[in-house]
């Protein structure tokens, strides 16, 4: 009788994931990669201790629970300034669960936030909420990334194509929405891009540019116009110019999901069966795009197991592997380490 994944026992669950799922390193390489460049000041225990003399002032008189409530509401840049002020503040910040969780599990995202200049717009409580958020804010599927210009959880397909995550230059936003550049900077996150390679084509970008979310910039402009002109202010004209698709990738980075109930960290996986179906089938033009969309879906572990029960190619791999105990034919894409 063929082996099937009807059981969710831990050993079978891990075997199914090992056989039929794979991480999408090609996605992670397409966006900002700042994990290896994280400043030492972000890493607990990896920086010289601050001087013991400076005192935290009035906060020193408050209970620790109140101090942590205050610290949670700070933006990341301000929290790091407090942390560097003296040894007691460093110890207090290191004990703050949102910060320690982000530093342990999402250091690459923190480094990207700092290096792109978004840290002063990113509240620690909000970043921690993103870490505990599983699904994309646009489509509702598993989201292994964040858009820095919108500070929202998203999936890779939505980074590439969702209208809600459209990214434009700050200069273009000023021209299109009639908002002063300084006011725009105070109203929305402005991403200063990092030199590097982006997209699966590994396209190089060395010049740093300033990027914003088109939706966030338009909302900010409308709020300012409403405050100035009242409810009868004329609508903004639509921006019809084409976008630079690379800008979307230059304003995004990976962020894992931390399950709040199990404290398990997940990066998301795709289905080898869907990849094999794409490689092995002769597809019509109408079938090609849906096939690519299926192979580009990221799943949580539980989401993948639910998908597995409906995916015939993945089940055939599982059967061929004899429940994960025998060699089986993998798709060329995963055999070559998704570097085709």
Jot down its keywords.
12 strands; disordered N terminus; single chain; three-stranded antiparallel beta sheet; 45% helix; 340 residues; 18 helices; mainly alpha
Number of strands: 12
Distance between the termini: 36 Å
**Main sheet makeup:** 3 strands, antiparallel
Shape: globular
Order of helices and strands: HEHHHHHHHEEHEHHEEEEHHEEEEHHHHH
Q: From the alpha carbons, calculate the radius of gyration and give it in angstroms.
A: 23 Å
Main-sheet strand order equals 3-2-9
- Unreliable residue stretches: 1-7
Figure out the total of helices: 18
Mean pLDDT: 87
Approximately how much helix is present in the residues?
40-55%
Structural class: mainly alpha
Q: Strand percentage, roughly?
A: 5-15%
Description:
Helix content is 45%, strand content 9%. It is built from 18 helices and twelve strands. The strands form five sheets. Strands 3-2-9 form a three-stranded antiparallel sheet. It has a three-stranded antiparallel sheet with strand order 4-8-5. The chain has a two-stranded antiparallel ribbon with strand order 1-12. The protein is globular and about 65 Å long. It starts with 9 loop residues before the first helix and ends in a 5-residue tail after the last helix. The N terminus is likely disordered.
Helix and strand arrangement:
Blueprint: H1 10-20, E1 21-22, H2 25-30, H3 64-72, H4 76-83, H5 87-94, H6 97-105, H7 107-115, H8 124-131, E2 145-147, E3 152-154, H9 156-161, E4 167-169, H10 170-177, H11 181-187, E5 191-192, E6 196-198, E7 203-205, E8 210-213, H12 214-229, H13 245-250, E9 252-254, E10 257-258, E11 265-266, E12 270-271, H14 272-280, H15 285-295, H16 301-308, H17 312-320, H18 332-335
Antiparallel strand pairs: 1-12, 2-3, 2-9, 4-8, 5-8, 6-7, 10-11
Helix pairs in contact: 1-16, 4-5, 6-7, 6-8, 14-15, 14-17
